[in-house]
Design a protein that fits this description.
256 residues, alpha+beta, Immunoglobulin-like, 2 domains, six-stranded mixed sheet, five-stranded antiparallel sheet, 5 helices, elongated, disordered N terminus
Length: 256
């Protein structure tokens, strides 16, 4: 009885360790691994094991920036079972990393959180950081942006409930024209990705450089920014980076 009481407050309770097949993934890729469970000093009933893909986003309030954790996807990986004292058990899992998972650029963290739901006890947990890199479609688009002379300056996940679709935030990739056709014409180009299995959609924020008195007034009133949506299907992307760069150049030039 005393051992059960200790286990209920986390002393002598079951322990978990999640082992991922690797540490680097792209949005849409399958994540595989095992959850290793080691029984504590008493038998315990495990109601479920659940994995969550997590990140952080920034929300401004009263001129202050606050960081919030956010669940991108949640995956149950076991049915209820009894874990005997001292028992070692492995539970394999696999799930698709959500397409809307942000890239680990700048200070954006992504981690897999494991929770062990134990009846009548404190739930032990485990957090595993992963690196998220562009998938093939996103890589082609980013390569095209780079070909046009843009350099990535900053990447942040920011609160935007209207733009985030299923999530309360978007990841903004902020580029500056270090060379190429838009140097001297744009202050910056912000890119938001909306990828899925069929295409990659972009929301471009084109920030024009102030020209003359009218341009300075427009900049002061934030009317020098234009939002443009564009989507590239798999057929478009198969044409390669140069073809995508040519299309983006035409789209941006119309609003520069």
């Amino acid at each position: 009885m005393f051992n059960r009481l200790l286990a209920s407050i986390g002393i002598g309770s079951a322990k978990i360790d999640t082992l991922l097949e690797k540490s680097r993934y792209a949005p849409g890729e399958e994540v595989r691994g095992v959850v290793q469970i080691r029984g504590g000093s008493v038998e315990q009933r495990i109601e479920k094991i659940e994995l969550s893909v997590m990140t952080e986003y920034i929300r401004e309030s009263n001129d202050q920036k606050h960081r919030h954790n956010c669940v991108i996807g949640k995956y149950p990986v076991s049915q209820p079972f009894e874990l005997k004292a001292g028992e070692n058990r492995e539970v394999p899992f696999s799930f698709q990393l959500p397409f809307q998972t942000p890239l680990t650029l700048g200070k954006t963290p992504i981690w897999v959180k494991t929770e062990l739901d134990i009846r009548g006890a404190i739930d032990p947990g485990d957090n595993d950081r992963i690196e998220v890199v562009p998938n093939a479609a996103m890589g082609i688009v980013l390569g095209a942006v780079e070909q046009l002379g843009f350099r990535l300056r900053e990447a942040d996940c920011e609160y935007a409930s209207r733009l985030g679709r299923s999530l309360p935030f978007v990841q903004e990739l902020e580029f500056v024209p270090a060379g190429g056709p838009f140097r001297g014409k744009l202050d910056e180009l912000e890119v938001i990705f909306y990828p899925d299995a069929r295409q990659v959609e972009l929301l471009l924020q084109i920030d024009r450089k102030a020209r003359g008195l009218g341009g300075f007034f427009a900049e002061a009133m934030n009317t020098d920014e234009t939002f443009v949506r564009v989507a590239f299907t798999q057929e478009h992307l198969q044409a390669g980076t140069q073809a995508i760069a040519s299309q983006l150049e035409k789209i941006i030039a119309r609003h520069a």
